[in-house]
Amino acid sequence: MTNAIEIERLCYRTGRTFEIKDLDLHVPQGAIYGFLGPNGCGKTTTIRLMLGLLRPLAGRITLLGSAVPHDVAAILARVGFVPEQPHLDPMLTVRETLAFHAAFYPTWDRPWAERLRVQFALPDDQLFGRLSKGQKGKLMMLVALAQRPELLVLDEPTDGLDPVVRRDVLSALLEYVSQRQATVFISSHLVHELERFCDWIGVMDDGRLIIEVPMERLKNGIKRLRIGGTPATADNAPFVLLAREPANGTGETWLVREWEPHMATYFDGPGVSLHEVIDLDLEEGFVELLRSFRSPRP
Amino acid sequence: MFRVMLYSQWKWSRLIVLLGSVAGFALPLISVHGAARADSSPLQAPELLHAVQSWGVLYPVLAATLGLLVAIASWTPDHRGRHVYALVLPVPRWRYVLLRFGAGALLLAAPITAVLVGALLATSSAAIPAGLQGYPVALAVRFALAVLVAFAVFFAVSAGTARTAGIVLALIGGVMLVQVIANVARVDLDLVGKLQLLVLNWPGPLAIFTGRWMLIDV
Questions:
Q1: DSSP string, chain A
Q2: Domain boundaries of chain B, sorted by first residue
Q3: Rounded to two decimals, what is the model's pTM?
């Protein structure tokens, strides 16, 4: 499988406290990749590095088969980007914004842009600066989609939007992806939103990628285990132990990743038994992953 | 591409360009007709030269002001969007800068043309005393050069971040401070004077702003 985005050992530092260190990230072609992480963990910085807005200290970035930042102008013609903050010219009307954008993209789809404008109920003659937050979000998504990109990079595109606008924006995105088989890289801290439609997930914290797996594997593989007794160690466990803590009474609660049902036999020993395997939803899994990353391993 | 860039910049700088054009058109007319006598008697050469020279001070001021304001307006949409939009457009950065510069320079053609038309009208409508001549085209060309120099300088400064502008201001402030300290300490140092000579005297980059700006001269 080829990758639309490949990042190898990326390093970047800003100020004294924040750094991205040895970041590896792989987004398969055609995937909808959710990039999860708490605020300030480095998601936006990673995106800016990917698009050549910032220069890395070290590492290699490849987008759609071309190296960033060397071929960045040619790459950007194939990439649609929706940033976190409104970035379009506030003095241009909706119509003028579309005309401005169309001039820079040879693949601009004028009829579809107009259809989306009507679908999003965006007033033609309203200045971008006077649009509501939801309308700005819709227009930014519109300009990213109407250029018919092979790759969409979306930095918290629905953050702060009301549920109706969010649904409109996401359904337009999914319609495009289903038609065009485009790759989507979407950063968010809204876990439930990503859970609905992403097929790959990467979780970042403190400038590092904690995990990068297919969504199904993450959703089905993170479990909380209630164990009777106290196993001495977790050596040779077939799963990844993220955290362990004493439960009420004599047992322990373990948080594990990459769990499969046949692994229950691991606890078939004297004085130890597996009482219960509890499914976690993605949000719980995300929180536990972050907690285990931030605290020392057992 | 250039057309949409020009339109975008027109929306940001139209008021500046319109007011600049009105001022540029009016300045030559006022400078010549301001010298006219109330009893409509013929203009005397010394009076006319004095009036033209007095009003002539305003040409470099207008040129610098127009260059400054249009340069700032050229970059304002990008500064507002923290340059994100510009940097993700699929054009090399040097080309984007050229587009912005070209659009700003083209918009400045309006006040330059206004100065030329005003100067031509002023010289053709006034009875110029013998021994004097009108130089409307030379004045307009000099005005055009001054506007473009000012625009280029301020365009380059405005292209940077607030930090860059701060560094430039700090450098200027530093020179002034050193001069003040030198004066107080009675040290024989004329830093400002030397810089002035270097920048404002020919072939200094801002020499075009200095000297006499005469629409009518001997």
A1: --EEEEEEEEEEEETTTEEEEEEEEEEETT-EEEEE--TTSSHHHHHHHHTTSS--SEEEEEETTEEETTTHHHHHTTEEEE-SS--S-TTSBHHHHHHHHHHH-TT--HHHHHHHHHHTT--TT-BGGGS-HHHHHHHHHHHHHHT--SEEEEESTTTT--HHHHHHHHHHHHHHHHHH--EEEEEES-HHHHHHH-SEEEEEETTEEEEEEEHHHHHHH-EEEEEES--S--TT-SSEEEEEEE-STT-EEEEEES--GGGGGGG-BTTBEEEEEEE--HHHHHHHHHHHHHSPP-
A2: 2-160+208-217
A3: 0.82
pLDDT above 60 (res A138): yes
Which of B74, B87, B93, B95 should be substituted to probe chain A, the one whose Cβ sees the most A Cβ atoms within 10 Å?
B87
Residue B41 CA neighbour count, 13 Å, CB half = 5
Q: Which positions in chain A touch B11 (Cβ < 8 Å)?
A: 91-92, 96
Cα gap A295→A37, rounded to integer Å: 16
* CB–CB contact A85 B7 (8 Å): no
In which element (H, E) is residue B136 found? helix B136-159
CA atoms within 13 Å, Cβ hemisphere of B136: 22
Q: Does A53 contact B87 at a Cβ distance shorter than 8 Å?
A: yes
Vertex A58: Cα angle to A57 and A61 (nearest 5):
115
Per-residue model confidence as pLDDT tens digits over B139-198 = 999 999 999 999 999 999 888 877 887 888 888 889 888 888 988 888 888 888 888 888
Ramachandran region, residue A63 (left: φ > 0; alpha: ψ -120 to 50; beta: rest): beta
Please report which confidence band the pLDDT of residue B23 belongs to, taking 50, 70 and 90 as the band edges.
Answer: very high
Question: Beta strand pairing status for A3-14 and A58-63?
Answer: antiparallel
Kindly tell me the sign of the dihedral angle through the C-alpha atoms of B47, B49, B53, B56.
Answer: positive
Per-residue tokens: A45: 């910085």
**Min distance A88 CA to chain B CA atoms (Å):** 6
Highest mean pLDDT among A28-37, A243-252, B97-106: B97-106
By Cβ distance, the residue of B1, B4, B85 closest to A87 is: B85
Cα separation of B91 and A72, whole Å? 9
Say what the pLDDT of residue A297 is.
Answer: 52
A87/B84 Cβ within 8 A: yes
Nearest CA in chain A to B5: A100
Residues of chain A contacting B90 with CB distance shorter than 8 Å = 73-77, 104-105
Min Cα distance A146 → chain B (Å) is 14
Any idea what the Cα angle at residue B202 is, between residues B198 and B208, rounded to 5°? 105
Q: Are A184 and A177 in contact (CB under 8 A)?
A: yes
A86 touches chain B (CB under 8 A): yes
Q: Given this model, what pLDDT does residue A153 score?
A: 94
Across the interface, whether the CB atoms of B4 and A103 are under 8 A apart is answered yes
